[in-house]
Each structure stands twice: as structure tokens, then as C-alpha cells.
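Q: Got a minute? One more chain.
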Amino acid sequence: MMRIALALLLAILPGVALAQSVLSGDKENPVEINADDGIEWQRDTKTYIARGNARAARNGVEVFADTLTAFYRDGKDGSGQEVFRIDADGNVRVTSKSEKAFGDRGVYHVDEAVFVLVGANLRLETPSALITARDTLEYWNIRQLAVARGDAIVVGSDGQLRADILTAHITKEGNSDIEQIDAFGNVLVSTKTEIARGDEGVYNPRTETATLCGNVKITRGKNQLNGNCAEVNLKTGNSRLIGGGKRVKGLITPGN
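A: Always. Here it is, folded:
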């Protein structure tokens, strides 16, 4: 089906010329919307509804969905209109330079450049990490952050790190990618041979090394090591306790 761009829609529909500034926003940060099955302008509710493989783009971030609903307000000094929120429904995908986020539904807060995804199979994919979540997945473009909430998991070569909340810091230099992931609440690292628990943690996707601190326990079979901090490599499966100023101790069961 021929793709209908908004610029064409504005040109052929009577009385729609004013709407061109809705997608322009401010001239330095325009919002572009297009869709396969057309775009509907609802003046009473101040919305545009794009249906069929709909796409919205701004500042290098693209949002794809079955349906996009853009909410606008009157511009400053009465000059045109500005999109301030975009709701996405069905097969939602958010992409930037090197990140891709997926969900069933989402809301893009344009002014803050924040996208919040919900639904089943929430996930964020980058060249160095795969993050999933149960409750929400947030992408903060200006702050270069991604936040996964609810049974959040980052997957490594030989294991995974799980926590209530994972906050991924995305580097702005060179190839944009995750440089660090902070873990909060019920932090657990599992490999093929052991499980490590702690109060909080930090994960480096490039080295696949997780550092846990606070009431750390490493369990391998019937053996257990306790300490203040520990390092676990999700690529090799190796781990070690770090004293952190406190004495470490272990319970070693013969034959294990």
C-alpha cells in the first residue's frame, strides 16, 4: 500500500494547512509522522491519529506502531501548534542510534524526550546488552538513560543479572551503547554453576562483569561464601569475594 506522508495529507485535504506546524513543533526539533493507512485530524480533541505501520521521528529517535495518536497544543504567540505527547498502540518499537526497545503500548513525552513502554515481552536491545522487564521500560533520550522496572534482567554469555530495577547508562561518545547498568533491589546474579545475591550491583556490559555489594552471598551447590562485595563474570562464570573493609567467610561442605 502506498505510504501516505503527512506532508501530502496537508496538501490534499481542505482546511488542513494550519496543521503543518503541529509536526514542525519548533524549527530546530521537528516531529515527523507518516503512516500507510492515512492520518486523521481531530480538531475537537486536538489530535492526529496515524494508522497502519505508523512512524514518528524526532531528534534521531523513531517510534513505530500499528497506531500513533499525537496530541498537540497551540504554539507560543499563537504561531501554529506543537505536539507534546504521542501514544503508541500495537507492536511498538523505539529506535535510536544503536538501541531498540520493544513493547505492546507506549507513551512518548515529546518535551522531555522520554518514552515509556508497557506490555508483554518488554526488552531493550543494544550491541552489548539485552535487557528485559515485566512492568515498564523507559527510554530517556536527552539524559541517555534506559530504566527497566519489575523483574528486570540483563543477559550475559554465561548467565544473567536480575533486579527490581535496572538503570542503563548510554555513552554519548563514539558508537552509542550501554557503558554501565546499575541494579537495585533483590539483586541476583546466576551462572551455570552458582548464584550470587546482594543489595545492589553494577554491571559492565563490555567486560560482562557484575559487582555486587551489601550482604553478599555466593552459593555453589551446598557451599556458600559471604562478604560485603563480590565480582561475578557472566562470560566465564568465575566469581570472587571482595572484603570491602569487612571480613569474608565461607561454609565449605566436604565432597562439594
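A: The CA atoms of residues 81 and 208 lie 47 Å apart.
Q: Perfect, thanks.
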